[in-house]
Amino acid sequence: MSVTEMFADIQGFLSADQDIREDIRKVVQQLEQAAREILTLLQSVHQPTGFKEIPTKCAKAREMFCTVRTHMADLKTKFPAEQYYRFQEHWRFVLQRLAFLATFVGYLECEALVTREEAAKIIGIEVVREEGFHLGVEDYLAGVLIMASELSRLAVNSVTAGDYSRPLRISNFINELDSGFRLLNLKNDPLRKRYDGLKYDVKKIEEVVYDLSIRGLSKEPDNAGDK
Amino acid sequence: MSKGDAQGCLKKSGGLQERDASANASSSPVIAAFKVFQQELDTKHDKHERLVKISRDITIESKRTIFLLHRVTSVTDVESILKESDVKLDLVRRKIAQIAEELKGEDIYQFHRAFTAGIQEYVEAVSFQHYIRHRTLISLEEINAMLVFTEAQSTDAKEPAEEDAPPPTVTAVSAPPFQVIPSDYLLGVADLTGELMRMCIGSVGNGDIDTPFQLSQFLRQVHDGFSYIGNSGPYEVSKKLHTLRQSLAKVEDACYALRVAAAPRSPSTCWPTCSPAATP
């Protein structure tokens, strides 16, 4: 085989690769659009008026995840299932966003951590690599960390809206997450960088809790609660 | 080097974990879940580190083979050097078999970053050897055909049997084979051109007149191949294309100098050849 033929072969491989990536990018764009729509919807929980509407917003968001699942099913058909990590870079970002949205909705509904299994189910994918398109543990955890900073915002805004008990509950939750993350031996990777941001969220919530307790606002038992 | 730092960090965070061992005494579902994640991440990181280690060994051994092969320009017995390089490359292949073993049932691309450097270096070494032996470019298929292993790659008892085996190493299949992916092949070949440039300059120094011309022709073919791929390939390829151009230019300059020096100076043209009188 001549040198030219050899390079032509490789070029053939590369352009096939490009085509697959192009297809993936198109679906990922739709996924990003769907994720943005859910995010916009959920952002209204930070509004003073939004607090009472949390259950309805969550129900709506759950509905919108149907679109996500459709696109996900589409995405799965675009590349050979065993080559997930070859193309992962294309959907990693949106997958982390979706993991965030899934865990955020779950938290708003029942104030508990959505497990990786549940989150994967909401997004419409698997948990283990062997079963196909999956929610890797790093992506799930990255999503949880995005949720943590969203919750620190929620703590601030719930005080503004006159709900003084929610920040305390958020504080407990975030502290639990923090000690969970401390169990992990993180390498010097993107997840580690994200985790390093968690302490600022913890700090922010602690400040809110401190303010509430120093002004005696936290003593009021559940009167101002949202439920 | 940066990989070494990462290892250091891993140990640091290991210390962190002990500090919090008391905090998770109160086992909540969240903590329980994170314990599972801890295990999963640790397993993954350990595998990654093991692969990085093997990859580093491959790089070192391949580099040594390349140095060995560079000696062909200065000795007469080329065959003995090639034989010696076969032995060395067999050792490297046994390391690659270890990678294949680690990757059994895994997604190659998940850990690709851990061993890509070693594999590129191996491609460089093996293609350099192939060029010296056959004066052609080794194909990806030929490389992959050499990376089919027998079961015995982990047991050292097999060692003597393999050493007197002919160059395309072992045959019987059963252990997982290793497949070099096209982008690693390309990057390895791009590095090969640097070695060929060095070999060309070396042979000029040794008074070998034919090799530089052969090399420049071959390098030009490879260069044309890379230009054909252009920047449609991975990002690193376009970076290496620049180095390839420089190497090619050096080789072409060397060939030019050889040709000019070899030509007899015509007695009619006096010293400043570009004088207006000389050009009618």
TrEMBL record, chain A:
One of its GO terms (biological process) is RNA metabolic process. Keywords: Cytoplasm, DNA-binding, Endonuclease, Hydrolase, Magnesium, Metal-binding, Nuclease, Nucleus, RNA-binding. It is found in: Cytoplasm; Nucleus. Pfam families: Translin (PF01997). One of its GO terms (molecular function) is hydrolase activity. The keyword Hydrolase applies. GO terms for cellular component: cytoplasm; nucleus. InterPro entries: Translin, Translin_C, Translin_fam, Translin_N, Translin_sf. Mg(2+) binds at E150. It comes from the Eukaryota. Its main location: cytoplasm. The keyword Cytoplasm applies. DNA-binding protein that specifically recognizes consensus sequences at the breakpoint junctions in chromosomal translocations, mostly involving immunoglobulin (Ig)/T-cell receptor gene segments. Seems to recognize single-stranded DNA ends generated by staggered breaks occurring at recombination hot spots. Exhibits both single-stranded and double-stranded endoribonuclease activity. May act as an activator of RNA-induced silencing complex (RISC) by facilitating endonucleolytic cleavage of the siRNA passenger strand. Belongs to the translin family. Ring-shaped heterooctamer of six TSN and two TSNAX subunits, DNA/RNA binding occurs inside the ring. This is Translin. It comes from Gadus morhua. The gene is tsn.
UniProtKB/TrEMBL annotation, chain B:
Mg(2+) binds at E124, E195. The keyword Metal-binding applies. One of its GO terms (biological process) is cell differentiation. One of its GO terms (molecular function) is sequence-specific DNA binding. Keywords: Cytoplasm, Developmental protein, Differentiation, DNA-binding, Golgi apparatus, Isopeptide bond, Magnesium, Metal-binding, Nucleus, Spermatogenesis, Ubl conjugation. It holds the Pfam family Translin. Its main location: cytoplasm. It is found in: Cytoplasm, Perinuclear region; Golgi apparatus; Nucleus. One of its GO terms (cellular component) is perinuclear region of cytoplasm. Residues 1-24 are annotated as: Disordered. It comes from the Eukaryota. Ring-shaped heterooctamer of six TSN and two TSNAX subunits. Interacts with GOLGA3, TSNAXIP1, SUN1 and AKAP9. Interacts with the homodimeric form of C1D following gamma-radiation. Interacts with TSN and C1D in a mutually exclusive manner. Belongs to the translin family. Acts in combination with TSN as an endonuclease involved in the activation of the RNA-induced silencing complex (RISC). Possible role in spermatogenesis. This is Translin-associated protein X. It comes from Gadus morhua (Atlantic cod).
